[in-house]
Amino acid sequence: MYEYYFPVLANKMKLITEGIFSQPELPPLDIFKELVQKFTDLLNGIYYLRDFIPLNLFMLDNSRLNKVLEKLVNDLKNFVINYFITLNQVENRRICDEFEDMSLHAGERPKETPEVVALQNYLTHCREERMYQLTSEIKQVAQRVIFLLTHALLDQEDINLNSRLFLWPKELEKVLDLSGARLAVVRENLETSLRERRVKFEQYLMTEKKKMDHFRTREIREMLSLDDLREKVDTVDGLMKILEDCSREAKEINANENLLQIDQSFFPSLNEMIEKMGPIEKLWHTAYKFDTCHEVWYFGPFKDLDADVIRNAVEEMYHAISVLLKELTGSPQAKRVAEQIRMKVEKFKVYLPILESICRQGLCDRHWKQISEELGQEVNPDVHNSLSQMVEIDIVKIQQRLEEISNAAGKEYELNIQLVNMQEEWTDVMFVCVPYRDSDMYILSSVDEIQTLLDDHILKAQAMRGSPYIAALGTKANNWEDKLISMQDIIDTWLQVQATWMYLEPIFSSEDILRQMPTEGRHFKAVDRVFRKIMKHTTADAHVIQATDYPELLNTLRKAYTDLEEIQKGLNMYLEKKRLFFARFFFLSNDELLEILSETKDPLRVQPHLKKCFEGIHSLQFDQQMEIVAITSAEQEVIPCVRKVNPNLANVSRIRQSTT
């Protein structure tokens, strides 16, 4: 009897229901209708189940089980129905809100053309697309409402919401019709207003065209002052401002015509005015610019002028006027002005070489004296400080010699700048000093970059010396070249001294070596004091220029290097004597032999070198008193000594001799 309800009791029915709702896309409503009908049938069957069943001596009480079954099925049924009640509320509110938004937007009352056209397009979109989509969604809502009315009791709020939804399409149709009619009237008014605006604009264009034609063609005086040109520029700027406003107005009219789908208007008179006024604007601006600049270039102090910039500006204006002469063929008056300007520019161009010569950087009193001698009268740039004054004293007649003197001054100036730049480049160049071992002594680190810079600057200095204009710099260039070569020699010698010093310093730090080589030891200490003094000076100020200015530095380093070479020769002679006295020392290098000789009180120093001096001996064995007790081979064979040997280092030479 209860086998039919096992899926409910075992929660299988609940899992099936949850599985349906967990799908990515909700199944059709018919599936849920069947599911709810299944739950209804189950409930009807449970209602017919008996609560008490007699079993001979017993009465079976099924009432609690029946109630549990009823609750489980009711919960599943209510879960499905409540889901669709909530879904219906959410969807109905969303659709109603969208209808509300469309109604509010359609009820707007725009006045400008873009807004009117935009609202008309919106109404069309609502009628042809959005209303169709929402009607389809309302049909789905209707299916859900029928389903809910069949299986559930809806409260008054849900009923009102459903009713509101089903009434919205007809209400919106009325709103759209009313808004469309109102917009049609507004659009017609806008079209009428636009036509009137276009007519007024065309009349305005004709008026302005007459003004501009008059400005272009009226008679102009032969000579115009700077104030007259300023007035012309102001007038033409005002006319060009009118043309800009007209162009903006034409674009706005065309834009509104495009929005209202009216045939585009053309304004040929506007295009004609823009085409004809363009050259006129350029003409008067060029004329005013040249006259303004001419006042500065010709009458102003030439020391403040840049001749290259002026030449470029003049060439640019001359080219502009040449182009304008071709464009102004239909405007005789304007063309005559352009010809006058071109003549002015051509006249000024004649003086450009003079201006370039007197503006040359590097001109000094010596050059002005030469110019005065060539001209036959004194030329003082503080008195004759403008191009006009130079022309008045007829400097043009020595133009060729003026250019030669000026070019020479420029070349001399360039050489001086090169020299100054090289000197400034050394301002922050410094030696890198690093500590020597664990002492407070410093030595030079890598100087590759300094030497590379030196080589480069020496080549530049030698190239400068080959210039025919170098004499103007006096001894500065030669002194700088000598300084560079001196620094190169100093650094080369310095590195030689440092390398030799670093080799000898550990050797003559040994008291045993000093005892055996007293003369060389004294000489090395003298060199050591000098070298340490130089390094102390360099560490205090590591700038290369300052460090190499140490008094008599090059001679001091050369003498130190000569002394170190003599010391090294004495050291080599000393080592040769030791090898002759004990021939097996010939098997050792100088460094290995020095290691032994520098610590004669430590017999263990000889251990690493035994295998080189004696073929079969690898090492010696010492006892606690540091006496030799045995000899060990490389194969670890041990030969005990017949008697202990005390390596008395005071008689080391005698002991070595007795072993040969």
Automatic annotation (TrEMBL):
Localization in the cell: Cytoplasm, Cytoskeleton, Cilium axoneme
Domain Dynein heavy chain linker: start-end pairs: 270-645
Main location group: cytoplasm
Keywords: ATP-binding, Cell projection, Cilium, Coiled coil, Cytoplasm, Cytoskeleton, Dynein, Microtubule, Motor protein, Nucleotide-binding
DNA repair listed as a keyword: no
GO annotations of cellular component type: axoneme; dynein complex; microtubule
Entry-linked InterPro entries: DHC, Dynein_2_N, Dynein_heavy_linker, Dynein_linker_3
Single GO biological process annotation from the record: microtubule-based movement
Name of this chain's protein: Dynein heavy chain linker domain-containing protein
Gene Ontology molecular-function annotations: ATP binding; dynein intermediate chain binding; dynein light intermediate chain binding
Keyword ATP-binding attached: yes
